[in-house]
Amino acid sequence: MLFLKRLLDFYINSSIHVALSVYALVRMTGFLFQITIIEACASFAFFGTIVGYNFVKYDALARTQKLQMRTQLKAIALLSFLSLLMAVYCFLWLERTTQLIALLFFGITLLYTLPFFPNRKNARNWAGVKIYIVALCWVGVTLFLPIINAEIPLTNYVFLVAIQRFILIFVLILIFEIIDLKWDDPHLKTVPQQIGVERTKLAGSLLLVGFLGLAFLDANFNSQTMILKSGVAFTVFLFLLFANQKQSKYYSSFWAESIPVLWWVLLLLFG
Q: Where are the alpha helices (DSSP H) in the chain?
């Protein structure tokens, strides 16, 4: 059991799980927009997420020498290096325009992590903006990147899906912010820090209602799609409802983060 726990911890701490969620959303985009050649985009997003998230999580601590290179961290460093090589390989298969956009998101990741401006903290520590940066990056990588790579026009439907996806990711991040409330720096001004846990849950619930309401604007609206989105929204709502500072790290980092994968699987089975 101890071995399995360590394996699960490595799976989560090395960002493989969050990368799988990103991969699932890219593949979902392929399903929704009937993109047949999407593996290069999906793989680039998967390996790029491992590199980006591990860079964000461990770079600052490594630079200040507060992080000792334990065995697991050495394994994470090796995985990140191999993932970087794979991300570069997949990057070469993308269209030129897509490559430029991918570089833009890479720049945002650097801005999010490194303090580029004198006497300024990195973007991760800019009060109140972290959640918006992360949600926008997720939407950009999982939706706009594969759509632009496939040269699909940016129609109203694309932006409708983008808003829905932004809402879902935003609410999922709220779950993380509630659970991390006791560890987060008060200067971050996360949503729970600014309006409290109960109001955060209320705001998240209203956003999920909006998520479902937007489904009626879809020209291809049907009852099966509505049932599927309702199931996903209800699952997110339950995770939000029971989120608190006493929950284990697996509650958010494994279970809540599995929801995009669940959504993709359900879409493949019943979409």
A: 2-13, 16-32, 39-63, 71-91, 96-113, 130-139, 145-149, 156-179, 191-195, 197-213, 223-241, 249-250, 259-270
